[in-house]
Amino acid sequence: MLGQEGADGCCPGLLTAPLAEDQAVELARVFKALGDPVRLRLLSMIASRAGGEVCVCDLTPAFDLSQPTISHHLKLLREAGLIASERRGTWVYYRLLPETTDRLAGILTRPAGQPLPEPVEAPS
Amino acid sequence: MLGQEGADGCCPGLLTAPLAEDQAVELARVFKALGDPVRLRLLSMIASRAGGEVCVCDLTPAFDLSQPTISHHLKLLREAGLIASERRGTWVYYRLLPETTDRLAGILTRPAGQPLPEPVEAPS
DNA sequence: ACCTTGTATCGAAATCGATCGATACAAGGG
DNA sequence: CCCTTGTATCGATCGATTTCGATACAAGGT
Predict the structure, then answer these.
(1) Helix (H/G/I), strand (E/B), else coil: A28
(2) Which alpha helices (DSSP H) does chain A contain, by range?
(3) Nucleotide minimizing C1' to CA distance for residue A71
(4) Residues near B114 by Cβ (< 8 Å), separated by ≥ 6?
């Protein structure tokens, strides 16, 4: 799980405190999954679907890519915890895992009062 | 600029509507910049700094990487619109560009009432 | 002018990632 | 049972990314 936080409601960081290496590695995995246009489109197609689920058979023909390639991208999104899949009969359905996108949104949200920049003279 | 939106306040998408290819390419560039542990740590060190600015000379020694490598990562973050740099005398200072992280946070935030999943039988 | 220190750019080496065709696996229908 | 259709995995290829040492550029001090 993504960087777990205490009980104080919101966001351990990125914008508030230096990230520890382990947390950075973990977080980077998720962002990396979002760092590809095909996966972003897949995710948005899945997330915006009315019923909350999409059949792979509806996703594949929307791209100019081979079926194995789409399958591979879906796997990366799944491994990043962004989506989940379920097989029903012949077909496999994917759905959004909102906890993960929620968490990312929180991580990227800065706290209310950010102190204003006031230049320093000389460092170290 | 990241996917521009009308005047209705919030978030064209990712989670609400299928992303167009151009928007996806643009967005992916930013997420890709976040998809590396070193860059995430750099960004968090810059963003969480009290004065709003950090000297490169304070960032470099925090990593087990060569100075050119850190410089390269900073360049990628800058090209993604996440940070900006300014030279003052011998030193170069980096600061967060909050508009970009704000926008990402918005893009990852889903609208209040997400319709509940209701399974379908057979697709196409 | 020169030297020193901080930062960026330039190749080059090694690793990673996207993509494909071939193939395996899953499930339902004759 | 075999055949068909949907999906996943495998292995290979090729371009992108990370990293380095070497070097160039910037600015201040002597």
Answers:
(1) helix
(2) 21-34, 37-47, 56-59, 67-79, 98-108
(3) D8
(4) A52, A98
C-alpha A42/C-alpha A98 separation (Å) is 15
Candidate from B19, B34, B106 with C-beta closest to A41: B19
Q: Which nucleotide is nearest to A65 (CA to C1')?
A: C19
Nearest to B84 by CA among B101, B97, B72, B65: B97
Assess whether pLDDT exceeds 90 at residue A47: yes
pLDDT on residue A36: 98
Reduced to 3 states (helix: H, G, I; strand: E, B; else coil), residue A20 is coil
Taking residue A119's Cβ as centre, other Cβ atoms within 10 Å add up to 11
Confidence (pTM): 0.88
Give the integer Cα–Cα distance in Å for A38 and A63. 8
| Beta carbons within 10 angstroms of residue A47's beta carbon | 26
The H-or-E segment that residue B71 falls in is: helix B67-79
Give the pLDDT mean for B108-113: 81
CA distance A79 to A97: 12
pLDDT value of position A51: 87
